[in-house]
Amino acid sequence: MSDGAVLHVKGRVLVGPEDVRDELWVVGGRISLRRPARTGDVRTVEGWALPGLVDAHCHVGLDQHGAVDREVAEKQALTDRDAGTLLIRDAGSPSDTRWVDDREDLPKIIRAGRHIARTRRYIRNYAWEIEPGDLVAYVAREARRGDGWVKLVGDWIDRDLGDLSACWPREAVQAAIAEAHRLGARVTAHCFAEDSLRDLVEAGIDCVEHATGLTDDTIPLFAERGVAIVPTLVNIATFPRLAAGGEAKYPRWSAHMRRLHERRYDTVRAAYDAGIPVYVGTDAGGSLAHGLAAAEVAELVTAGIPPLRALAAATWAAREWLGRPGLEEGAPADLVVYEQDPRADVRVLAAPRRVVLNGRVVG
Ligand SMILES: [Zn+2]
Q1: Ligand 1 center to residue 24 CA distance, Å?
Q2: Ligand 1: distance of its center to the CA of 179 in Å?
């Protein structure tokens, strides 16, 4: 807050899943867990406060046709912000959204550069489309462009086969992931089906998006290596529509998508039960609307994840995983205040009372 005013947040401040305080203060845009010596003008916000929500799979600067202009990207970011999403892991975008970093009124973005896909094996205009021999070079480039993440398209429909199939040979991803790690970046991959997962995990991948193809064979492997998943259940809900659209031309693919959809809740629940870290991501920005983090938390609860853990997957745990602070002394004051206790019913997240970003009440 540049005007020097002080914000007093009181009620129940959910600093951690087991750490609940009565109040916190915001001074100069930063959190103070103690009452400041001089307060002057104080604005009070009352309710249940959480760290700003995290959407760990979101695309800013992208729509169903590819890159969008700045005005549209700004609207996307504002929609997320007003829904309480104040930290985004951008899971791939063809447009340069660096300008967002200079805007105190927009959510913070952790970028994965641009998607890297196999030639003709992804949505048009989204990705660098390359062959395995170029993978290491492209991964190195996106690792340097991004904010600590690189995004691969791990599987997609193979039109000759008429079904989903893995996009990369094992040796290529192994070399590419090693290069990303050498450059200090983590790697994640889009995977719907079963057959790419083992290679990616054994090659050292850090996270898998969607992960609808997890089975009893691969779940223990993910758990043992601590590979996270971001299920994006609000996106998986569109599989039956996609399957219906592709039925005539690709019946095998269509049936496969339906099977993955039918078992989606069991898959996520089994992954959670095995100890795989699960985080909230919506996949907004492709064909999905922005601002759906609350709906995804509710979906994780439907899948059988306990409400407090589903909440953590969008707040405390997600921030720790991404290396960003929550409601800590001196941290930027990015928080959301609700009228009721979101631990009792996560649907409360759908309607924030107040959104505070960099110490300013923005919504
Ligand atoms: Zn995505």
Answers
A1: 35
A2: 23
pLDDT tier at 2 (50, 70, 90 boundaries)?
very low
Cβ-based neighbour number of residue 56 at 10 Å = 29
Q: How far apart are CA 133 and CA 74, in angstroms?
A: 36
Distance of CA 283 to the CA centre of its chain: 7
Q: 58 C-alpha to center of ligand 1: Å? A: 6
**Residue 348 counted as domain residue:** yes
Q: How far is the CA of 190 from the centre of ligand 1 (A)?
A: 7
Residues 155 and 287 in one domain: yes
What was the pLDDT predicted at 1?
A: 43
Report how far ligand 1's centroid is from the alpha carbon of 110 (Å). Answer: 14
CATH number of the domain where residue 195 is located: 3.20.20.140
> What is the pTM (predicted TM-score) of this model?
0.97
27 and 90 housed in the same domain? no
What is the sign, positive or negative, of the torsion defined by CA atoms of 20, 326, 88, 337? positive
Instruction: Work out the end-to-end distance of the chain between its first and last CA atoms, rounded to an integer number of angstroms.
Output: 15
For residue 120, pLDDT beyond 80: yes
**Domain membership flag for residue 1:** no
Summarised one tens digit per residue, pLDDT across range 235-261 is: 999 999 999 999 999 999 999 999 999
Q: Residue 43: its pLDDT value, please? A: 94
CATH assignment of the domain containing 20: 2.30.40.10
Judge contact between 195 and 208, C-beta under 8 A. Answer: no
Q: Which helix (DSSP H) or strand (DSSP E) does residue 169 occupy?
A: none
Give the residue numbers spanning the domain of 355: 6-50+326-361
Do 309 and 350 sit in the same domain of this protein? no
